[in-house]
Amino acid sequence: MSDPFSGIESFPILEMDYFGLTENQLNKLPPKQRLEEMIKIIKHSDDESQRWDSICLCGELYHVLDRVDHDLSNVDSLQMKTHIKDLFRWVLKNEKNGVVLHEVCYHIAARNIRELIPDLVTCSVCSDSILGRHEAIESLGLMNAQEVMDEIKRALDDPVRDVRETAQFVLKRLRRYRNEAYEGLQII
User: Fold this and answer.
1) Residue 114 DSSP symbol
2) How far is it, in rounded angstroms, from Cα 17 to Cα 161?
3) Which of 142, 65, 145, 83 has the alpha carbon at shortest distance from 109?
4) Dihedral of CA 184/33/25/49: which sign?
5) Most buried residue, 19, 68, 91, 165, by most Cβ within 10 Å?
6) What is the pLDDT at residue 184?
7) Contacts of 40 (CB under 8 A, 6+ apart)
8) Coil, strand or helix at 46
9) Could you write out the three-class secondary structure of 2-18?
């Protein structure tokens, strides 16, 4: 019997330097310290799985900061949300791993961070990552970003079929939802 995986590119399992804390350890930290640690991991860890975890936790923290039942002052909460938005913008511009880029796009849309729409547009047409371009476009559709339909149309000429299909899908969705506001995902 022949090997069903022959000819499929494999990725070597690399020894990686441990950087930062696990998700469970991060969640036990006070919010400000948690955010500081997640920023370090996202900007400096060579381990994309750690960066992905930290993106997810930042998205969750952003969501919690929208609620009124936390122990932070309004000023602290607004400052932390600003840091998370700045971090997400940094990731959109600097992240090389498509899976991590995909995740940040999702969290921007899920939290309806509309200030980052221009950054999603840039990612949708300029990223080297096919997965990143796809998710940036899909996130713009999820956010009902009517104001950037012309920019999304540029992706109809993307060299990758999946990205073109995503743009076509999103443009159809935007036309359907033309008169409705997006309020963010209802995350349970």
Assistant:
1) G
2) 37
3) 142
4) positive
5) 91
6) 59
7) 19, 20
8) coil
9) CCCCCCCCCCCCCCCCC
DSSP assignment of 115-162, as one string?
Answer: GGHHHHHHHHHH-S-HHHHHHHHHHHHHTT-GGGHHHHHHGGG-SSHH
Which alpha helices (H) appear in 11-143, and where do they start and end? 23-27, 31-44, 48-65, 74-94, 98-110, 117-126, 130-142
Q: Mean pLDDT in each 10-residue stretch from start to end of the chain (188 residues)? A: 46 47 88 93 93 95 77 82 97 97 97 96 96 98 95 97 98 89 60
CA distance 87 to 99: 17
The structure tokens listed for 182 are 């997006």
Q: What is the pTM of this model?
A: 0.84
CB proximity list for 107: less than 8 A, separation 6 or greater: 55, 56, 58, 59, 62, 88
Question: Closest Cα to residue 91, out of 121, 114, 123?
Answer: 123
Here the tokens at position 43 are 């900007």
CB 143 within 8 A of CB 109: yes
Residue 175 has φ and ψ, to the nearest 5°, of -65, -40
Which domains, from first to last, does the chain contain?
23-176 (1.25.10.10)
Closest CA to 88 of 61, 67, 119: 119
Instruction: At 86, list the tokens.
Output: 């700045």
